[in-house]
Design a protein that fits this description.
Layout: H1 3-9, H2 11-17, H3 22-34, H4 36-55, H5 70-151, E1 158-165, E2 168-175, E3 180-184, E4 195-200, E5 209-212, E6 219-223, E7 230-237, E8 252-255
Antiparallel strand pairs: 1-2, 2-3, 3-6, 4-5, 4-7, 7-8
Helix pairs in contact: 2-4, 3-4
């Protein structure tokens, strides 16, 4: 190795600082012995370093402390690398924790969004059912309006009948001369979703008045026969496939007074 290569490589500086291993130090010393100029440069560099230390009040090592060798600095580098690896390991653990937390938040937000959509769908369904109930109520009112209007003039002659049954109390309001009865089933046992009350007013060939669970709380207008005979009420599934209702025992039978 030439003088210029030795200076450019920084090995001479490391030699003066005592940072070279024994083998490399011996190689540099051989070069210094064979090149007085290089030896003077090494001495000058040593003096410059001492002057820099004196100017900065850098004290020499404590008595009894051996100077650090290249192996000591190598061990120090190893300790620093080990400490950095441990810190990086801790950072990796926190990184995984943050990733798991982000995934949890994403899953939670997806669940909440799905729950919101389900609630919105249920709300739309309830609104549709409410609108359907209102439409059915309007149809029922339109169907019964004619019979009710016919009997409006006879409210003073209204006759009410109450009859106790096993499942509650039946209320029947007769409008004299109108040929209709207003039947109140609100105090009878509540219907299941697939059941209905069937009311026969005794009019020949007339279909029964069907009262579903939704309509049970109101008044049902039933046309009566001439003369008014009995009012029969059955409870059965809406889409029943058994024998005719007339062949069964009615839930309740009320004998009505004759028409005036």
């Amino acid at each position: 190795m030439s003088r210029e290569e030795l200076k450019r490589s920084g090995i001479l500086d490391q030699y003066v600082l005592g940072l070279l291993d024994p083998e490399r130090s011996a190689e540099v010393e051989r070069l210094l012995e064979g090149d007085p100029t290089l030896a003077r440069e090494a001495d000058q560099l040593r003096q410059d370093l001492n002057a820099y230390a004196d100017a900065r009040n850098i004290a020499p090592p404590a008595d009894g402390r051996p100077p650090r060798t290249a192996e000591d600095f190598h061990d120090l580098d190893h300790e620093m690398i080990t400490a950095m690896m441990e810190r990086n390991h801790t950072l990796n653990i926190w990184r995984y924790v943050l990733i798991a937390a982000c995934l949890l938040l994403v899953g939670l937000s997806g669940y909440l969004f799905r729950l919101k959509e389900n609630l919105r769908g249920e709300l739309v369904t309830q609104r549709a059912l409410h609108a359907q109930d209102e439409a059915s109520h309007r149809l029922d009112m339109a169907r019964n309006r004619a019979a009710i209007q016919t009997a409006v003039g006879n409210w003073d002659n209204l006759q009410s009948i109450e009859q106790a049954v096993d499942t509650g109390v039946l209320h029947v309001h007769l409008l004299a001369g109108a040929g209709v009865a207003l039947v109140d089933l609100s105090d009878l046992a509540a219907l299941n979703g697939g059941e209905a009350y069937y009311i026969f007013g005794g009019q020949a060939g007339a279909p029964p008045e069907v009262v579903t669970a939704r309509q049970q709380g109101g008044l049902s207008v039933v046309k009566l026969g001439t003369p008014a005979g009995s009012l029969r009420i059955y409870r059965r599934a809406v889409n029943h496939g058994g024998p005719p209702l007339e062949a069964e025992q009615p839930l309740v039978t009320i004998e009505l007074p004759g028409k005036d």
